[in-house]
Structures are given as C-alpha cells and as structure tokens.
Amino acid sequence: MGGFSFRNFTFMFIVAFLVWSSNVETCYARRGRHWRQTTTSSASLYKKKGKSHHHNNGSKSKPKHSSPPSMPTNPPRKGYDDVPSSTIFDVRSFGATGDGKTDDTKAFQAAWAAACKVEASTFVVPSQYVFLVGPISFSGPYCQHNIVFQLDGTIIAPVDAKSWGSGLMQWLEFTKLVGITVKGSGVIDGRGSVWWQDTPYDDPLDDELKLIIPLNKTSLRYPPIPLNSSLGGGKMPSIKPTALRFYGSFNVTVTGITIQNSQQCHLKFDNCIGVTVYNFTVSSPGDSPNTDGIHLQNSKDVLIRSSNIACGDDCVSIQTGCTNVYVHNINCGPGHGISIGSLGKDNTKACVSNITVKDVVMQNTMNGVRIKTWQGGSGSVQGVFFSNIQVSEVQLPIVIDQFYCDKSKCKNQTSAVALSGINFERIRGTYTVKPVHLACSDSMPCQDVTLTDIQLKPIQERYHMYDPYCWQTFGELYTPTLPPIDCLQVGKPSSNRIQGDHDQC
C-alpha cells in the first residue's frame, strides 16, 4: 500500500510539472504574439497615415526609426528661394527662346494659362534674355488671385506692321485680375521710333504750345525725330498702342521695372481700384509724341511714388473718374509735367476729386502742374493740392486752362467743368516763358484757388517772357509771391451761377 502510494505520488508530480511547464510557455508565446501583432499594426498605420503618432493619447513622441523626408523633385529656382517650386512658371519652360528674334508670344500665353490656375503663382521672365512678344492679354476674371509677374529680363515689341494689323490700343495688357503684381529689374521696350516717324504733324499736340513763342517769332513745331529705318517693316498703323495697360483690376502693384520708348502711353490704369506704383522708371525722348508716362482713368485709391519719368508728354496724366490719388517723390523731365485732364472733350462729363501731388522735381519740362479742360464739358474738379514742387527751367510752372483745344480751332461754348478747391503751395524754381497762367471759364469761374509760398524766377532763354496771367480766377493769396500775382481776384464771383444737375458728380 505504501509503495503504491509513492509511485502514484511520483507520477502525479511529474504530470503536474509537465502541465505547469506547458502553461508557462503558452502564456509567454501568447504575450509575444500579442506584442508582435501590436507592433506590426502600428507600423502599418504609421505608413498609411504618416502622422498617426500625433494622436496617440495626446503623445507627440515620434517613432525612433521613422524614414527621412524625401527631397523635393523640383527645387526652387535660383533667385526665388522663398517661392514654392510648384508655383513658379518660367516662360523658358514653356518654349520661349529669349533670343530677341524668335516670336515668344505663344510661350508667354502658355505660361500665363498655367500660372493663372494657381493662387499666388509667379510668372517668371528671367534675366539675361530678350523676349520678342506681340500684342498679348493676360486675362482674368477666372484667374486665381495674387499672381506675381516677375520681370527680370527684357520684353521687346515687334516693329513690323503685320504684327499689329490695323492697329491696337494696347500691347501688353492685364485685365480683370485681383492682386496682380508686376515687379523686377527688367525692361519693357516698345521700340516706338518706328511709330513716331509716321506721326503726322496734325496729330493732337499739347495746346500749351500756343503760349510758347520763340524769340525769333518762328512757329514752334516738334523737331524731326532721328529714326532707324532698318527697323521698320512697312508703315505702322495710325492707332498706336499703350505699352503696359491694366483694366478692371483690384490691388495692382507695379515696381522696379523700366518701360522705355513706348509706342504711345507707357503705363495706363483704366477702371482699377487700389493701385500702387513705386521705384518705377519711364525713359523716352522728350520729343516722342503723345508718350505719357503714367495715365490714370476711372481709377481710385492710387499711390504713385519714388519714380523717375522722362517722356514726350505728361509725366502723370489724371483723367476723368479718378479720386483719392496721391503722387509724391517723383522726378519728371523731360515731359509736359503733371496734369489733370484734359477733361470734358466733346461735351462730356468729367469728375475728379481728392488729388494730391507733392514733393516733385521737374526739370526742362513744358509745364509744371496744371489742370486743363475743354469748353462745353460738365462735371467738376475739386479738392486738388499741389505742394512742394521744385521746377528748373520749366516753361509754364502753374497752369489752369479751361479753354484747352488740341485742334487748329475750337468753337466757343458756355458750359464748363467746374473747378474749386485748387491749392498751389511751395512751388519754387525757375521758368522760361510764364510763371502762372490761370484761364478760367466766363460762365463757370474757378473758385477757392489759393496760392502760398510761390517763388518763381525767370531765365531768359529762347522764348518770349510773360507776366502772370489770370482770367475769371477767384481765391486768395496766403503769402506774398514772386513774381507778384496781382491778377487773382479775392473772394467769390458775384454772378456765379449755381451748378445744375449735369454739373454734379
């Protein structure tokens, strides 16, 4: 009985030991499988989502063996390191040659079509290349916002007549865009001499030429312009284009670039809101016809500053529909000065208000600051401030001309654009013809014209000299002037008619 019990005990002990060992191994195996499965699952999830470790119970720790980020396949081009490569559209990548001979218009169109689809894209015209581009429109309104036109190279216009057909009003045009910026160190060259040579002498000329009489009493005409006839390919059309035009756009910026030798006007803004131009250069001969530097029409909230403008017409021309315009720190010359108008042509209504022009240097220009309107017009110009204008050998530094006429003869009419609140302050320097010319309408005299700190000295050159002239101009002299401007009438006109509805703006 005792032996049996011992064997039973021994057998049961061995069986129990084996069972216990088996259970321990099974437990560790299960725990091992569970750990491996968890690891595999997490790794798979990490690969799938990429950022799943950021959501692991609020922990931001990263796996120790995460793979390094891949390098971009298209790194940003040199000079545009702060611009993502996916938003850069270089015209050379779209087939532009840039040799100054091959027509690159289609390449520019293709590059714009691509850039137009991407918000805040950069359209690149690279430096050290010359691109021959025909008439082209960089158009919205379905383009994305805030596109940058990075102009570091040179764009030249074709000089053969067939490229222009019967004539166009613009060469490079941006229309219906929001947040468009044209910037860089590049040049837009209109090669305008082939257009200027075909300008007939009966083309509209600046009417203030009638006030400038040479000492030898010969008629004053534009001198012949030297031409390179080898550039031309037939007679150019009579309609001359503007070099760079913006139409119907919001928040427009132009900076850094140069426009030279434009066919007609250099830079134009039509129906734009929020315009900024600075560090901008215009370079054309003083005898290039009708080549305004900057032309504004139906545009508001405009800032033009820190720029150099040399051209054959107005350095800055402000037309109807403009309000809240601020022009300062401008070098103007050669050219015809800074002008509001001409306004009211062909009995039209003109509305201009809140214009400030200050801190301007003018050298060898026809006019300094002026307002010019046609007889027969309606509407008003009010709230104009010309301040701190330095003139050097300027023919007519201060001008209001309500009898403007760029034809050989214009008929007299009674209605006129009403002028009020016109201020001339700190206008100093030298003149060669007449210091002040204020010719206002008989039926609508100028009101609230003020002159403060006017110091203008004559330089006898090749023109007849004249004293200050005023007609139907009412206002006040706040300080003595040099020369004395005794012709200004103090107060208000006694018989001034009340503006009708057609005069109100």
UniProtKB/TrEMBL annotation:
Highest taxon, organism lineage: Eukaryota
Molecular-function GO terms, alphabetical: polygalacturonase activity
Record field: compositional bias (Basic residues): 46-65
A Pfam short name: Glyco_hydro_28
GO biological process, one term: cell wall organization
Coiled coil: none
Region annotated Disordered, chain positions: 39-79
Record keyword Signal present: yes
UniProt keyword annotation of Signal present: yes
Subcellular location: Secreted, Cell wall
InterPro entries reported in the protein's UniProt record: Glyco_hydro_28, PbH1, Pectin_lyas_fold, Pectin_lyase_fold/virulence
Keywords (A to Z) from UniProt: Cell wall, Cell wall biogenesis/degradation, Glycosidase, Hydrolase, Secreted, Signal
Active site per the UniProt annotation: 336
Signal peptide range: 1-29
PANTHER family: PTHR31375
Membership in a protein family: Belongs to the glycosyl hydrolase 28 family.
Protein name: Polygalacturonase At1g48100
